[in-house]
């Protein structure tokens, strides 16, 4: 370690105080001059204490330098900065560039894996990748084909690699990994191909597989203790998953794990959500389909589950539960609590006690949400914790081959993976959202390994009777369960937000704007049009004592599918003139990093 | 048909026979058990006088949005990384279109990473390939507008039986 970082003084200081693997990354994260983890910190707050760029001067922001990634597909995630090195990743073919910030961003090394292009079409919704992770002098890349590689951060040499899944069965990857203690935690994609979702831990030094916890399956597959693992405070009991499925459907039951992961070192628990059950036709999988659509708390050492909370039992709309879990310490009724806040695809924002899994708040964070009248908050009730489903919008109750119309939100959710930020100063969450509704018609499909397993026809459109746009950027109070302010956007906001001690919040838009707004009021303070639509996440760091803001452009992902052509106009049948602009009128493909700074 | 006949004759005189034959790839010349074909026996869509689309076009709308939509975008319009199939269904020969769906296709280069998977063993695609094809042709000529076709012909017994036999 010492030798590896001899060149970078900042890191040398950090490593000097290192006690264990866990502490090493924690110290790197705690140093605001770096951006050491995709999520900003273990708590997924995406908050920086840097305040050189602040609400009084952000209007003067300028482009400092740019870097083309050489890849055209959708660019999610963000670069990392460790000491004087910046690590930039790309979508498939998953190139990693190490840029030397002390040497005008010169490419110190480049890693390009050899991957079978057959993995491309098995990836639902573009070949995005949400970035590399760093720990112990290694850069961790989880490739599209599910190969996990550990690269020497100094040289780019492969230190180890492991294969996490089988693309021939539809198992692929889009997510980053989470280094915790002596392990890295790794998820999987492929819910639209009928895979059996799982989370796996690999040894950080050797790449050896340590444990795997399935989201659906038998108790030994789930890594649960039927007596001790709880759901809303009660033991989950024996066979908690398989008895909520008909027959063997759980074996192709989805519940993948392609989102973000957070970690509480004090409680020693990792948090993440599981995705939709497959197929999208609910009639083919009677039951609650546990533990799809579930917030999970697990021990990183052995994977054992402490608690679950299933948000959307028996999904009927493709409301994956994979969005990030943001960990905060806040006062609730005068008492300091360890909270977990989660903005779900289903349009509800949940606040839970993250030690116990107790549900505290569940309220819609988009006024358009209509599929539920709300969650039962009475612990004595038989339906405690369950959302009350509105019959009109129930694709299960309406049945196969029936087109259920006007469901809000659409399958891509009131929010997808694009992560929100939290400012401990304002105690507000800054949330990029989709303001899109849908028609959904489920029908019977048969399963073929490695082939799409969807079973529904969808059409999506901007939320009716609203501002006509497809997105909002909102500030959310997670204790009151209220929107504080909401900025309408023409397109879904598909970029991860960043909050800073400069009282500002940054986010990107699908037209390609990087925007800075006042953290208190939402007032727009700065915007700049980057070369392509933004689906990446805003990050910040310093170099040579100067604060920089970085963002990847490169339109694509889910947004590139639906929006490139423009969504269906819901009023077409009524003879209204279609006024919904296509994203292709605003932006074209292109992967680029744009870095901003104040003028000297 | 009468109109088509006279057009063909006129064109022959002008020496444009092949051109017209290509145009003919769209127009329905006859129907069989609720399915429509061109003069060259290529499946095609049909829009009735009341604006109702044939069953296969309606079915193709549904199947397209289940199997193809996640890459090729809504209603055959294309996405940021996959071509607009409403255009492909017009520009490509039926048998070439069929071949690409069954066997897949790769375009890998420095600037492009485009891979169409092979759907040959996927009954959700193969049992409905003609449905998807005629729907996309209708989209390509704009005979079928965006959105769900509001009116459709009924599903014939033969189509129903063939579907059941195909899905197995």
Automatic annotation (TrEMBL), chain A:
CDD domains membership: PQQ_MDH
Pfam families in alphabetical order: PQQ
SUPFAM superfamilies assigned: Quinoprotein alcohol dehydrogenase-like
Domain annotation Pyrrolo-quinoline quinone repeat: ranges: 35-361, 492-549
Cofactor: pyrroloquinoline quinone
Range of residues in the leader sequence: 1-21
Record keywords: Metal-binding, Oxidoreductase, PQQ, Signal
Superkingdom of this protein's organism: Bacteria
Classification via InterPro entries: PQQ_b-propeller_rpt, PQQ_MeOH/EtOH_DH, PQQ_rpt_dom, Quinoprotein_ADH-like_sf
Family assignment from sequence similarity: Belongs to the bacterial PQQ dehydrogenase family.
Protein name: Methanol/ethanol family PQQ-dependent dehydrogenase
UniProtKB/TrEMBL annotation, chain B:
Cleaved signal peptide residues: 1-22
All copies of domain Cytochrome c, residue ranges: 59-123
Keyword Signal attributed: yes
Cross-referenced Gene3D superfamilies: Cytochrome c-like domain
Keyword tags: Heme, Iron, Metal-binding, Signal
Species classification: Bacteria, Pseudomonadati, Pseudomonadota, Alphaproteobacteria, Rhodobacterales
Residues covered by region (Disordered): 142-168
Basic and acidic residues bias locations: 150-159
InterPro entries: C-typ_cyt_methanol_metab-rel, Cyt_c-like_dom, Cyt_c-like_dom_sf
Keyword Manganese (UniProt): no
UniProt cross-references to Pfam families, sorted A to Z: Cytochrome_CBB3 (PF13442)
Name the UniProt record assigns to this protein: C-type cytochrome, methanol metabolism-related
Native species: Sedimentitalea todarodis
